[in-house]
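Quick log. Single chain, no ligands specified.
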Amino acid sequence: MIKPYCFLALLLLIGCNPTAPIASDEDVIVVGGSTGGDSIIILPSIVTPKIPTLEELPILRIISWNLQAFGPSKANNPEFMQVVDNVIGGYYDIVFFQEIRDSTGEAWKKLCSDFSKEYGYSCYISHRVGSTQMKEQYGVLYLSEKVYPFLVSDENAPYVSFERPPLIIDWQIRNADYKFTTVTVHIDPDKVREELESLEVTILRSGNVIIMGDLNADCDYYDETRKNAFTSNWAWVVPDYADTTVSNNTSCAYDRIILNADAMREYGGSGLLNPEMITKEVSDHYPVTLVIVAEEQNAKPVVVRESAISLSTLRCYKLISSSL
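-> predicted structure:
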């Protein structure tokens, strides 16, 4: 099986000199920017303790993928299912799928059964949502020995704020005091600005919040240079210049990951999987991935600004404390 690409989180531990002096009382964490550069979050009062090993870090790996009209024909296509297996494998702790279209439910049953037998995943499928006959569902795979959901908000009633209401899940890491909330959603491309505003209001809450899904937040659907939601105390970690589309005729960052300030403290890296095996016959979207170091930190991001600093600038994992 072809293994997924390495995460930036792992690179955070490579090439670091833990004894190197800090040039000033500020340090930076690099995340995706919105104007072609990268945003950096300034963290004052840095404390650099002993850097833990990979084995000591409680790494949480999450992936989100729009499977483009996943139904019986794809579920019964061995080549398609092999690609999904190669991409997902048992590597990720949580997997989110968007655009499951199957009124019979048989397609998801097969995918769930295959991944449960092979890798031990547990499964969840949302209600069918949408105001038209083209209804969709969100699918979730998760490794229950690592993480488990303890509260699910799965809206299936008519919802004027969204064409497809988000699936919101509260999670607990097993054998660790770490809780977080995930929000997966497929935003209506004709109402991106309106639905993003509604989404921000819907998920107003404290704690670690992670938004992953097909937000259609780029190109003709959305002017990313004029963001109207998730602009204060939120980080868009898939940069605006990323291309999450499979087509050679487009270059759009439709699939996004957005973290609130609490979750950003444990941000370990994000990425885009675009192997050659994901062709237009498989999906028109590439998956986006996230790594969280699932151990509460108390650093407080206080400034977000644009910079031309490369994503390769910071590769050291640091436990950061702040007295702000």
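The chain has one domain: 8-307.
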